[in-house]
Automatic annotation (TrEMBL), chain A:
It catalyses: O-phospho-L-seryl-[protein] + H2O = L-seryl-[protein] + phosphate; O-phospho-L-threonyl-[protein] + H2O = L-threonyl-[protein] + phosphate. It is an enzyme of class 3 (hydrolase). It comes from Zygosaccharomyces rouxii (strain ATCC 2623 / CBS 732 / NBRC 1130 / NCYC 568 / NRRL Y-229). InterPro entries: Calcineurin-like_PHP, Metallo-depent_PP-like, PPA2-like, Ser/Thr-sp_prot-phosphatase. The keyword rRNA-binding does not apply. GO terms for cellular component: protein serine/threonine phosphatase complex. Keywords: Hydrolase, Manganese, Metal-binding, Protein phosphatase. One of its GO terms (biological process) is DNA repair. One of its GO terms (molecular function) is metal ion binding. The keyword Transferase does not apply. Residues 108-113 form the Serine/threonine specific protein phosphatases domain. This is Serine/threonine-protein phosphatase.
From TrEMBL, chain B:
It comes from Zygosaccharomyces rouxii (strain ATCC 2623 / CBS 732 / NBRC 1130 / NCYC 568 / NRRL Y-229). PANTHER family: GAF/PUTATIVE CYTOSKELETAL PROTEIN, TIP41-LIKE PROTEIN. Belongs to the TIP41 family. GO terms for biological process: TOR signaling. One of its GO terms (cellular component) is cytosol. This is ZYRO0G17336p. It comes from the Eukaryota. Residues 31-68 are annotated as: Disordered. It holds the Pfam family TIP41.
Length: 308, 363
């Protein structure tokens, strides 16, 4: 029998989930996500969370420090998988919460929720290691294609993973994008997941040769054109967990503490209250060992070798 | 986590005991030798444990260690029977500065978290003006070797490494760059007749600010004062001696900076050091992979012979096209070619050598 609460409990312990269970979970999630629009409306109070990157134990801390799914509403800005050791468990836990409490959690797609990126940055490898085949990875990728591209909180906070796009002047224009596909290498959908704010006067090309950079003026124009106060995005590591820019018109929220188990950064979530006030909750990474000395995370102790 | 283990009482007890022993051993070993509790010797007489007390007391002069362990917070050093590996606490951030002295050579390292926003902004607007900095900068880390008699220092740190990154267009573009730009221009042309609000100005397809986004650095370490290392391309690293499994007295491995290139590959500068009784070896490796485009490895190796007071620095650049290198994986990493490209040792063996330089210095 399909017992959601039991699966949640297993996931929270980082335990193995059978392939058929993952299949069912993914199928149910797709049905649910299919009916959501590209930009979901969310009411206050709500907690906005940035990148997770497979750091399951830190995700549990996040819920613990911010009220918990039983009591609070959440928006996740994407990048649930890759880099960390528990991408699958982190993503499935969020899906389970979505199935269990559909109106309390909104999942936005990040640039890592794609087939191409997960093949290179860890999620695919993790699945091969845990299951010996790629089926589970394929089921999850199917779900990625249905994730929302953005959210809007009380008509005043626009949430997106990466940033703005010159092809998207109004939030309404995002609604016409066909999102149910692998993230393309160009176009509005790509920009929303990939672009970065920077100290530039106008839309500019990243020196890498793809991807846009946008500046304070683009942000102010977007805010006033759409009648919103804030753009909340993730996508970039911030040592202090969050960083406000452009007269507080844009904030980067980062929710993976001690990123990649070696950066030593703290993480943050942003709570928007009914009066639209912002408050940040900062939290640190879990210790690599629990209080009785059992290892819960592999430590990055230098492995001595006779390198040449 | 295996459930079985925790239901078996006997094993559990042994595990707890050995965990306690290990903990006590670590704590005691951090104390200077003369402060170590006497009873420790009784605590650790069990056979399976390495017994520090044996090596603490005078040994035949031929094997008496020449080195001095400089930081009492260090984990056990060779004097106490084990190697210095600077991960003294299980918690992060790691904040120890282990150091060891052999004859007139002092070796020290430091590991700290990435720069905070204040430090980061200071670097961006002052110290490295004009460079958009890599995402992760371990700017307070270093590996330092000092000759205390002749007052000469060689250090590896992120700031000096990033000063070597060029503030001009590298010419390198991500694999899908042309496709991306073409599609934008196509859209632009279509929109022109109506002069619609979607219009992308041509300027938006220009790069506003040029710098080498791959962070390629030919950094060979920072010499104190005037450069004293002399070009000596004939010189060769003593590979035979370095291949010997001599006891390692001090070991560290750290990242100086890293950037994920917006998920188009990786750019990373890493420094490793191992110190043996007679010599040390440092390997500073810059590793760049631009997915589907190119691979670049720039290695600086420093070997110091303590007795002879000789320094040798070798600098090698490797570079090759991504597609050529991935073709070579077949025999070694059969199922996952991408895994081969994450293994810098495999990559360096399969990437053509572009240049080599050597320098030496004798005191």
């Amino acid at each position: 029998m399909f017992d959601l609460d039991r699966i949640i409990s297993l996931l929270r312990q980082g335990r193995h989930i059978a392939e058929e269970t993952v299949y069912t979970l993914c199928l149910l999630s797709q049905e649910l996500l299919m009916n959501e629009s590209n930009v979901t409306h969310v009411n206050t109070p709500v907690t906005i969370c940035g990148d997770i990157h497979g750091q399951l134990h830190d995700l549990l801390t996040l819920f613990e420090k911010s009220g918990g799914i039983e009591k609070s509403r959440y928006i996740f800005l994407g990048d649930f998988v890759d880099r960390g050791f528990y991408s699958l468990e982190s993503f499935l836990l969020l899906l389970c919460y979505k199935l269990r409490y559909p109106d309390r959690i909104t999942l936005i797609r990040g640039n890592h929720e794609t087939r191409q990126i997960t093949k290179v940055y860890g999620f695919y490898d993790e699945i091969m290691r845990k299951y010996g085949n790629s089926n589970v990875w394929r089921y999850c990728c199917e779900v990625f294609d249905y994730l929302s591209l953005g959210a809007i909180v009380n008509q005043s906070v626009f949430c997106v993973h990466g940033g703005l796009s010159p092809d998207v002047m109004t939030i309404d224009e995002i609604r016409s994008v066909d999102r149910k596909q692998e993230v393309p290498h160009e176009g509005a959908m790509c920009d929303l997941l990939w672009s970065d704010p920077d100290d530039v006067d106008t839309w500019s090309l990243s020196p890498r040769g793809a991807g846009f950079l946008f500046g304070g003026q683009q942000v102010q124009e977007f805010l006033s054109r759409n009648g919103v106060d804030l753009i909340a995005r993730a996508h970039q590591l911030v040592m202090e967990g969050y960083k406000e820019m452009f007269d507080n018109g844009l904030v980067t929220v980062w929710s993976a503490p001690n990123y990649c188990y070696r950066c030593g950064n703290v993480a943050a979530v942003l709570r928007i209250d009914d009066d639209l006030s912002r408050s940040y909750t900062i939290f640190e990474a879990v210790q690599p060992q629990n209080d009785v000395g059992n290892t819960i995370l592999p430590t990055r102790k230098p492995q001595m070798d006779y390198f040449l | 986590m295996s459930g079985k283990r925790y239901h078996t009482k006997g094993i559990n007890v042994i595990e707890v005991n050995s965990a306690r022993d290990a903990h006590a051993r670590t704590v005691h070993a951090r104390l200077p030798v003369n402060q170590q509790p006497q009873q420790q010797q009784q605590d650790f007489t069990r056979e399976q444990l390495p017994i520090p007390s044996r090596s603490v007391y005078p040994r035949p002069s031929a094997t008496t260690p020449r080195h001095i362990c400089n930081n009492p917070n260090n984990p056990p050093c060779a004097r106490c029977g084990t190697t210095i590996i600077p991960s003294p606490r299980a918690t992060l951030p790691l904040e120890d500065c282990p150091s060891v002295t052999i004859d007139n050579w002092t070796i020290s390292t430091r590991k700290r978290p990435i720069l905070n926003s204040q430090e980061f902004e200071n670097w961006e607007s002052n110290k490295l003006k004009g460079l958009t900095l890599p995402e992760m900068i371990f700017g307070n880390n270093y590996v330092r070797v000092e000759n205390t008699r002749d007052n000469w220092t060689l250090e590896f740190n992120a700031l000096d490494a990033l000063k070597h990154v060029k503030l001009e267009d590298s010419g390198i573009r991500v694999a899908y760059s042309q496709k991306w730009i073409d599609s934008k221009q196509e859209k632009h042309r279509k929109n022109l007749p109506e002069g619609a609000s979607f219009d992308i100005e041509e300027s938006s397809l220009k790069i506003a600010h040029h710098y080498d986004w791959t962070y390629t650095t030919k950094y060979k370490g920072t010499e104190s004062g005037t450069s004293r290392l002399q070009r000596d391309d004939e010189a060769k690293l003593p590979i035979d001696k370095l291949s010997r499994p001599d006891n390692i007295l001090f070991y560290d491995d750290m990242i100086l900076f890293e950037d994920e290139l917006a998920d188009n590959g990786i750019s990373m500068l890493n420094v490793k050091i191992r110190v043996m009784d007679e010599r040390l070896l440092i390997l500073s490796r810059f590793f760049l992979r631009v997915d589907d485009v190119l691979i670049r490895v720039i290695d600086t190796r420093v070997c110091i012979e303590f007795q002879e007071n000789k320094v040798l620095r070798e600098f090698k650049e490797h570079e090759g096209a991504y597609k050529d290198i991935i073709l070579r994986h077949r025999s070694s990493h059969s199922h996952d070619p991408k895994a081969a490209l994450r293994d810098s040792n495999w990559v360096v063996q399969n990437t053509p050598l572009v240049s080599r330089q050597c320098e030496s210095l004798a005191f």
